[in-house]
What we know:
The protein is α+β, with helices and mostly antiparallel strands. It is about 15% helix and about 40% strand. It has two domains: about 50-120 and about 165-240, 2-Layer Sandwich (STM4215-like), CATH 3.30.2000; about 125-165 and about 250-280, no CATH class. Strand 8 and strand 9 (about 205-220) form a beta hairpin. The longest helix has 16 residues, at about 50-65. It is elongated and about 95 Å long.
Amino acid sequence: MATKYRNEDKSKPNIIQTKSSTSLDKKLNKAKQVRRDKDKMKNFSVGIYDIDSAFKTFLEKDVKPTVEDDGRFYPVPVMYASPEKWSSAQRDGFMKDENGMMLTPVIVFRRNSLSINTDMMKLKVAEGGEDAYQAFERKYTNVNKYDQFSVLTGEVPKKEFMSVERPDYVNLEYEVIVWCDYMEQVNKVVEQIVFFQGRSFGERYKFVIKGDSYSFETTAEMGQDRITKANITLTTKAYIVPEYKGKANSTTRRISVGKVSWGEDNSLSGYNSIKISGNE
């Protein structure tokens, strides 16, 4: 028998081991590569901006801070302080409106820091595994259409799932300043915030908030208006799900395998062939 000889260049790197010197590259599973350029499903993501917006909504719609003046209750506006506004408020000691006048009552907040919640850390070692995703089933889609034939026969050819990366849990610290005309009004606003701490908030995403510190200050200088304020530090326990992980989309589409199996059923008349349909 003829022997086929082949010259091999062993100086070239092994193409099955390009990412690590101790382990082989993972084999590509094309069954999990499902296109998403034609579906209308929006990518799921939770960012820092979403948490800031939910925190502002928490103060406006959940706490609903109000002050009493001359027998009437007035809502306290809530503002996110840009770096310019925050520096101006720290320099002058109060917030200004468009005309340069002192603005009271008002609640101003900004985000100070972000830290990882070590009590609920995600296991990064299982990256790419089945436990790294959370799957949500879509009932009726173009892949699994609802029709009379499928209802009569009870057949469900396929199921479609949307897999989302599990979130990273973080702690965000916010600095809140409450300005009012009188200390009694400041006390009422702080009491309302203390009452709602420890509860979950958010309309679309749910987060938890807790108060770390509360301090009060009153400034009354000669020839200037009296300034009464409270400095509050609130910590929000939230989570982050980025829309993209590198160049890949964090929301993937998966389709189950439709399978129809045939079996036999013993009866008095002999063997009857029955059809068993379902998903596996």
